[in-house]
Amino acid sequence: MRWGWWYLAIAAIEKSQRQLMEKSVAADAEMYSHAAARVIALYQHRLDRDASSETEAKQLRKADEIEIALRLAALQAERNEIFNLARHALISDETSRRLVREIDLAEARHRVES
């Protein structure tokens, strides 16, 4: 039944297109046709992929989890390198604190996403 409203939306787009074309000049008719086709294509795409949407959603969630884990690992590697640079006095304590704070904020954002 979920698909029913998409079909209704497509029908409404087609009806609006006809009404707008009746009120417009002939030169604009092609623009209305192209615009309506683009909007209808969006709904058609949703209809086409909805059948496999649950499997696709699971795959996207898993890909997101993997991406977040990789980003967190990269942030930890950055943090470790900043500590190493600060330990060897290659960057100042102030710079290291600022950079680590930025990494902490980025890490917090990624942890909220997961």
Describe the overall structure.
This protein is mostly helical and about 110 residues long. The chain has two domains: about 1-50; about 55-114, no CATH class. The chain is about 90% helix and about 0% strand. Helix 1 runs antiparallel to helix 2 (about 25-50). The protein is elongated and about 75 Å long. The mean pLDDT is about 80.
Can you summarize this structure?
90% of the residues lie in helices and 0% in strands. By secondary structure, the chain is mostly helical. The mean pLDDT is 82.
Structural class by sheet pairing and helices: mainly alpha
Q: Helical percent range?
A: over 70%
Q: What is the CA-based Rg, rounded?
A: 26 Å
* Terminal residue distance: 31 Å
* Average pLDDT for all residues: 82
Oligomeric nature of the chains: single chain
Helix/strand order, N-terminal first: HHHH
Largest sheet: none
The low-pLDDT segments are none
